[in-house]
Amino acid sequence: MVTRSKLPYLLLFPTMTLYGVFFVFPFLYSLFISFSEWHLLTGDMTFVGIQNYRQLAGSHIFKKTIGNTLMYVMTTMPVSIVLGLMYALLIEQTKKAKALYRFVFFIPVVISVAAASLSFSLLYNARHGLINQVMSLVGIQGPNWLNESKSALLALVILGIWQSFGYNVILFIAGIQQLDKEIYEAAAIDGLSPFTRLTRLTLPLLSPVTFFVFVMTTLSSFQVFATVQILTMGGPNNATNMMVFFVWQEAFKFFNTGLATAAATVLFVATMILTLLMVRIVQRKVHYQ
Amino acid sequence: MASLALKNVTKKYGNTVAVQDFSLDIQDQEFVVFVGPSGCGKSTTLRMIAGLEEITEGDVYIGEARVNEKAPKDRNIAMVFQNYALYPHMTVYENMALGLKNQHVNRDEIHRRILEEARILSLEELFTRKPKELSGGQRQRVAIGRAIVRHPSVFLMDEPLSNLDAKLRVRMRAEIASLHKKLQTTFIYVTHDQTEAMTLGDRIVVMNNRTIQQIGTPDEIYEQPQNLFVAGFIGSPAMNFLEGTLIQQHHTVALQLENQALPLIPHQGKKLLEQVGSSGRVICGIRPEHLMLEAAGVASTSSQEQHHQDPSRQSEGISSSITGEFAGLSSQISLMENMGREMVMHLQWGTDRNLVIVGNRELTFQEGQQVRCQINMEKAHFFDPVAGTRLKF
């Protein structure tokens, strides 16, 4: 016989067990590894204190990956949010083919990252790629997108925007459809112009969705990996080396598992602090109904 | 302040007609109520007046100006919505001010007007609150406040009380009535609640199936319903309908109902016979308060009936009043509903036919008791069973 006071814990037990096994334990174990020298192939593990963190602090490449990742996040996130919102508003105002537009914009979300990356590698081809061919039509000599330091990160940013923007469009459309139409009728009687309606009503009323999109896009941008691995392998000259790719490279290419987990821990702590800051600062401007 | 006219207004969505050939003249400062069941077209008509729906055919005039093509903001109207439609992220003050700011009214004037109208509606304490921090009644008052600060020519209200509980609805109904008196502006009010229509309207427009059924004062609508729909829709409990055949009995005319016959008052019978066809079929409508119950040779009248009787008849006593224009129907009490102030009794007669009577709650009848239901034929209404229209007598 289960007593009333024990029942909640019993019901929580399966979920908490899964959470503990797959989230808490891996984090604590990787934290432990980050203070060790652990060779994956031999299994030898030696406690080295904060040596891995010292090494990271002195690593020119790690600093470069932090810079690249921040640059990637700070460009991909705002552009995909603004474009997502803009297209969602446009789609919701069209009278015909709404479903078609939604489908078209959702395609990037369901296409596998590998397929999308390979398609983009063709588009980015310096000689035969569609992008450079179109640019040449207006007399612009396109760059060697994936092989030049100046353009490689931009190429990944464009792909990142393409990937996340469709998902954002769908989220914003869902948000717009939830808005009370009577409020807009009241606004029409109050004489609010379309621009005022957008700035005084739609944007504030969509702020819970925008906040969600903001957090999710930021976090997913920090975790960019597959496109880097498929298109540039972090090159040229570490111009597109990102934090998660650095972790993967150190762990599975150079077998510096301790250093890799230290970098992963830094990434985890950084994203956690950032998320908390976003919740604290940005959420103040969110209008929950 | 302005008069308003709708001339042959029709609204279609594709092939679906939502409002058919609606014509109405509303006087300046008049309180007109559109009432009818869901889907009858009353809200669509209101929205066409507001400019929120395009008019398919016909014209709408506010004052002297035809406003068909004018944007809602240019019609000098204000609207109170069913779900209040307050801007949820703005305070009460900002909700009231936004429309005025948009009209470029200067800040001092906005503040003066908001304070003035807030005083009428007791909103001063709520200025800094957001809609989610308000009760239903407070939200409704803010919605009304937002409408009145604009000093519109016409107020449009779309079922503004339907989201409130019964007690608050009664209070807000009284507040709206007194607001109309204070503001002396034209009000158009949409509701499906016939009590709101009867208590608020100077005139009532009863709608059904996309068309106007009757336009009139509350008394006209109640006392002289022009068709079966109006007769059945207005009044609670609803009017009783008895379908039967007019027959000649010696020198009088009677209404034959299955195996019982109700003698009509002489002037009724003659005129009705002239209007009905050879079938003689009619529907007799009688309101629950115009029925009385009689048991063991003593009749007990409904409270309303006692009130409506003229003094001379009351002085004659109840028993004698059930002769003359009263006709009796044998029936059985199937259900008694104690409404507190009165008793609603459901009677069964003939083959599964029902009557509802409103009576004094001190009556000593019991469920299952055989009674004789006396019908005040002076108050009876007669309708053509095919066309549903009122027969005059």
Automatic annotation (TrEMBL), chain A:
Pfam families: BPD_transp_1 (PF00528). Belongs to the binding-protein-dependent transport system permease family. PROSITE patterns: ABC_TM1. This is Carbohydrate ABC transporter membrane protein 1, CUT1 family. Keywords: Cell membrane, Membrane, Transmembrane, Transmembrane helix, Transport. It is found in: Cell membrane. InterPro entries: ABC_transporter_permease, MetI-like, MetI-like_sf. It comes from Anoxynatronum buryatiense. Its main location: membrane.
Automatic annotation (TrEMBL), chain B:
Residues 4-234 form the ABC transporter domain. Residues 297-319 are annotated as: Disordered. Keywords: ATP-binding, Nucleotide-binding, Transport. Coiled coil: none annotated. One of its GO terms (cellular component) is ATP-binding cassette (ABC) transporter complex, substrate-binding subunit-containing. It comes from the Bacteria. GO terms for biological process: carbohydrate transport. InterPro entries: AAA+_ATPase, ABC_transporter-like_ATP-bd, ABC_transporter-like_CS, ABC_transpr_MalK-like, ABC_transpr_MalK/UgpC-like, Mo/tungstate-bd_C_term_dom, NA-bd_OB-fold, OB_MalK-like. SUPFAM superfamilies: MOP-like, P-loop containing nucleoside triphosphate hydrolases. GO terms for molecular function: ABC-type transporter activity; ATP binding; ATP hydrolysis activity. This is Carbohydrate ABC transporter ATP-binding protein, CUT1 family. It comes from Anoxynatronum buryatiense.
